Write the structure tokens for this entry.
Amino acid sequence: MFGLFLLISGMAGSQNFPDTVQIKEIRVLAKRKVEEAGLKITRPDSLQRASSLTTDLSELISEYSPVFIKSYGRGSAATASFRGTAATHTQVLWNGMNLNSPMRGIADLSLLPVFFTDEVYLLHGGSSMTKGSGALGGSIHLENTPDWSSAFNIEGLAETGSFHSRKGFLKLQLGGRQFQSSTRIFYDSSRNDFPFYNSGVIPHKTDTLENAAYRKTGVLQEFYIRHLNDQVSGLRLWFQQSDRDLPQLMSYQGSQREEFQKDEQFRVQYDWKKYSDALNVHFFSGLNTAKLDYYRATPAFQFVNEDSRSAETGWMNHLRIFRKFDEKTYATFSLDANYHQVKTTDNETGMGYKKDRLETSLLLNLHFKPTDRFAAFILMRSENYDKQVVPLIPSAGVEWQVLRTLPVVLRSNLARNYHKPTLNDLYWLPGGNPDLLPEDGYTADVSFAGDFVIGKTVFSPEITGFISKVENWITWQPAANGAYYWEAANVKDVLSRGLEYQFTAAHNWKKIRFRSGGNYALTATSNMNAVRSADESRGKQLVYIPKHKGGFYASASWKKFTLKYDLNGVGKRFTKSSNRESDFEQVLNPYWLSKLSLDKQIQLEVFSVNLKLLVDNLFDQNYQSILWRPAPGRFYTFSVALKYRKP
Amino acid sequence: MKYTLKILLLLAMAWSCTDEPVETVYFDLDAENGIFIACEGNFMYGNGSLSFYHPETKKVTNQLFYARNNAPLGDVVQSLAVKDNLLFIVVNNSGKIVVADVRTVEFRGVISGLTSPRYIHFVSEEKAYVSDLYASHITIFNPETLEITGTIDLAGHTSEQMRQIGKYVFVSHWLNGEHILVIDTDTDELVDSVKVPAQPKDMEVDKNGKLWALCGGSYQNIDVDESPSALVRIDPETQTIEQIYRFNEGMFSSSLEMSAAGDTLFFLNNGIYKMAVDSRHLPDSAFVPEKEKLFYRVAVDPAKREIYVADAIDYTQDAVVYRYSQNGILKDSFKVGINPSDIIFP
């Protein structure tokens, strides 16, 4: 698989090379912001964003980046695993504000609609250190920015699909050059009652998924004011609710269960930015509250198993100063102070706790750009949490356009990082372990990124090799003292290494515009600390992390018609730490999913209408993404978007 | 780009062709002389399994049920019971009991519609009880027809292990419980209960007809403080506690077994412990120390008096079962499925 991608990039490279050498000097690095030099960034382009506009973040990332998304199915919880790390090692930041749950450590990407973002980018590995700590794998950044050029803009989008799925989106933006208001609303619901072939029971049969419906709604309001010429203040308010039923495994034949999860989030952020030639200042203060109720009962037995409620409140403050000393020397200084309070209780079992956490972080990042072809940074971060001081965490990166005539840059990054135990890891009763050490990570990567323009073709490949080690990896496992509960412990040392390949290409032929892109990740991630006598897990791939993952798309546009094909593949995933398997047990086999869409845009001066038909799982593949959880076969979506824009 | 697409499509086709159908495997097990091992699997993975080991030939067969029936058992295979030529496999988090032929492991039926079944106790040819972790009743079914015939209300208690002495079945209320319930098998009614230390689970009957219960102890949570494990001896006649043996704090004991002669108890407490039923104290040291292993379940072969103990290793890979002589000498070891929860000698 990897050979193939090398071949593709090789083919492309060999075709392009003779043309590129004719150009005398190519300035690739010069175009990049100095703060981003040396960082491995994935930034979905406008086409990728547009085709994922009605989905949640998990689909955008899964399809258009090398990051692996573990999803429990349509509408269900989804988390991201960068470079073979755990879901808790991915940090999600909304306009700089961390959205990961301090209790559970994760951020559920299925609750983050792409429609509520203006820009999304990913920082891989050590590059995430520039924005925060704890992202041992990487970080996901959601940004909202005002559009000062528009006076009035209204967009509406309605989507209907198989399995009684309905989505609605509305965006209203108004204002002028001094003031902007943007309101976004979304609604997403599905009965999600898809048919599937149930091979988990005897006799095998065609079944319908039950108790899997979901409904999500949210509103995001933004206000921006431009004071003077160089200062902008923003106020953002985001409220969201989600109500999801949780289905049983395919082998379940018990009494009908009632199991659901309700989430509610409210986020508010005040943001202030000041720009000048030599000094940029950014400050925000924000509140992030999240409630999660989980309920499981067997009504026919009049028995409630679990009825837990958790509430989290985080108050986050950030100050960032970017200073330019001269054309070659720059520095970023930042200070964070966050306070989290969590409370969780289970009305049935008495399990839970109430705790708080104060964390502060200090960063100094020096950027150098001695020439147009070379840039570097060196960074130091110091953190403090729960009265513990974490020693200085260093990180450094370089970016170098090796040959003046070749539009290829070499990028490399080296970092130490750490991830503090979540509050559940420390305090959950029973099983939380207050003596846990933070997870300690070391990571390095090297990338080559090219930007080739040959006639009417643009081709931008990027290949990255990475290696990372996480020591004191935290895992929950049955208690060592023989008790019948699970407890948190620092049990693993995980070594992860691999490659990430991405490309985008565009070509114009007569009146047809072709665009294409792809990604592939090779991830070998294994536990190196297997101590028990008969343990076969040492050096084996971690469970649920595929060694191979890739995606490819190609589109052709002609007279405002766009035909787009997407192919996504996930390699085999093991469910046993020993990676052992036999013919007589379910392993998660590789699968490829295809998607085909056709859309037509109709432009009537300031109005535009967009019609889109999408076929998902085009070849009706029967696959499992999580053991014994069914996935839908071929399904359809139709959407209509209306847009009015007054400049 | 065309080449790319073609290569990718070819690769996709090649890759999607790897799912070959699995052929059925037919068994004829020497069930009377072998042992069955229920392997829980991992909660919500649906990967529970069934293994068979023959002590004479030392041959082990794993994934018996899937191999014979081309379907999984389900999520958390909790316990096994044999009645005549039928093997009853309790699949806890699939809410069902799967029934198979004890020699061929061919699927014979399913008792479905339960919620969290744990153990089976056969009262007679036509009557069996099923305990349940998340129900305040015991379900009654007919082992011949596999039909559910009734329930026994437990007055708010849940149920775990069951042992019959005379016409009474003693039922431990394990999860957050502190009672052993007494059920009259003539009337199928809860008639009494005995208060014991926190979380009674496994129970055994000794040569003197006394009932032993291993109480796991309670774990600290919002409502209660931690309390240590305890072993209790109950007189079933008077339904009163005769003696309580308390364990040291911080360790939790599990998996109680009785020798066939009814004179020796075995249990896990970071190692296998052995204790004579007439002992006045808990043993000081382990009969088989755990060392770097992770003992999950112990069982005693009634005929050969050998001891089997399962090492769960890291809970997410195939476990190892060690077979010891009655003097603690290792005789064999073999791999089974994930997290062995029950070992039976039909």
Notes: The radius of gyration of chain A is 25 Å. DSSP finds four helices and 32 strands in chain A. The longest strand of chain A covers residues 486-509.
